[in-house]
Design goal:
Strands 1-3-4-6-5 form a five-stranded mixed beta barrel. It is globular and about 35 Å long. 0% of the residues lie in helices and 62% in strands. It has 95 residues and is mainly beta. It has a single domain (3-93), classed as Nucleic acid-binding proteins (OB fold (Dihydrolipoamide Acetyltransferase, E2P), Beta Barrel). It has strands at residues 10-22, 26-30, 33-44, 47-54, 66-77, 80-84, 90-93.
């Protein structure tokens, strides 16, 4: 799949991106507990998209990495589509 094909509130099988930007991670607390979250941006040949990384994935990724998200999830937040691994997805950093 490519960025241009991603629609809000849908899952996707596989997406490969180059990470172009990563914000500083921050801690959060909610009704499920505590954790870490970091936002960033990624691109492919069709466009750019916001990325949200959670917990263990936060430490895996840095600017310039190529990542693959399998079984990911897309949602719309403040008028922009964001992607993440969701509940069932996996993130891999390509060597």
């Amino acid at each position: 799949m490519e960025i241009k094909d991603i629609k809000p509130n849908t899952s996707f099988d596989l997406l490969e991106l180059e990470v172009t930007e990563m914000d500083e991670p921050r801690e959060f607390t909610n009704f499920r507990g505590q954790g870490m979250v970091a936002n960033g941006k990624g691109k492919d040949k069709t466009g750019e998209i916001k990325i949200t990384l959670w917990n263990d994935d936060v430490d895996k990724v840095k600017e310039g990495d190529t990542i693959v998200i399998k079984n990911g999830w897309a949602k719309e937040y403040r008028g922009e589509i964001q992607i993440s691994t969701g509940k069932f997805g996996k993130l891999e950093v390509k060597e």
